[in-house]
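To: structure subgroup
Subject: Chain for Friday's discussion

All,

I'm putting the inputs and outputs inline so they're searchable in the archive.
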Amino acid sequence: MPQTNPRVNERDHLSSSRDIGLPGRRTFLSWLLFDWANSAFSTVVVTFVFSAYFTRQVAPDPLTGTQLWGLALAIGGLFAAVIGPFLGATTDQTGRRKPWLIGFTWACVLSTALLWFVYPETGSVWRAVILLSIGILTMDLATVLYNASLVKLAPRERIGRWSGWGWGVGYAGGLASLIFVLVFFLDEQTRIAAFDTASAQPLRASFIFVAVWFAFFSLPLLIFVGDTQQTSKTLAQGFRDGCKQLGESICHVRQYKHILRFLIARMFYVDALVTLFAFGGVYAVGTFGMDEQEVLLFGIFINVSAGIGAFVFAWLDDRIGSQRTILVSLGGLILSSATILTITSIQLFWIVGAFLGLFVGPVQAASRSYLARVAPPKMENQMFGLYALSGKATAFLGPTLVSWLSTVTSSQRAGLSAVVVLFALGFILMLSVPTAARRNRHDR
């Protein structure tokens, strides 16, 4: 890969930041708030509260709940994998990302609010599956558009820290929303008294709270950060040219084997992460008998450790390089996830869960910063389009494997073993990244 002048790259980044149309700090704060906003959906709905509610009170039994939960995640992930790359390529051509970002954000907000109508009865099972699938799909598509601007905001030598701070703010938002839900909706001593517990109104109302949280904190990005580089291309022209560009991107990435192998490795370990957190609440309920409040407390505990890990490893990323940070994080994730599947003590479950959380944010933040540093000049947007594809193309694989293994073995532990395998595959593939990538300008 040809070397470039780092000063030129830094000026390009600063110029790109100004192109967004706002002072850099205000723009970046608006960007961070969107991470704070969407974390409530990921944490409360996907990972802890709604997952536990669905498994314990909506599905006929925990095993069936695990299977149907996997189905919902697989449907949303599959459609996102198909639509996401074409969406990104099309909006690159037209320059009009904001309308799509607004649309997908509000679609996720609406589907989340409608979870109020998922009652604690088996008659609500398919309503829950459909709404969750829509929420996953629209959240994923909004995230594709949201992530694309990071490389324009951060100076190249601080990409690791900025990426880590973004994940850290997200975990802080997840923690704050979990605490709010615990205090005002779940705790018997402090929750809002007007709710009818017989029909699970406190739990169902928490999903409306998540919708309001997401809508409110996403407003700075949706209002203040606009599209300033729109083209005259129609949607049809943008789609046609975008498909052509996507094909060129795939051809280009073959010239850079380290990037190609990185993207393939990322497909596996990101799928493992998505699966782990999507089924975390389900596993805690079915295997350790936790109720919704205990799952929520565990979620708060995990988010604290994840936030600490994201901020600490953000500094490490800029010191030892993104590739090494990814390997260290994957090693920790393999060890801790394998241990969780073998222990029977709930006390050990909490301890190992905290250890696992330390590595969740770093592996994601370092992945984003790695590609930002090795992407060929003037190909950054194309490479990040493929980056988004690598995170979505197999998003359905992990949930599908867990659902299938749980069905075949009648065991949640056996079902979740798929997560360890996916982490291990990602680790092995990261080791196989050619030495040239490790000697690249950012990791020297």
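Points worth raising on Friday:
The chain has one domain: 6-438.
The radius of gyration is 21 Å.

D.
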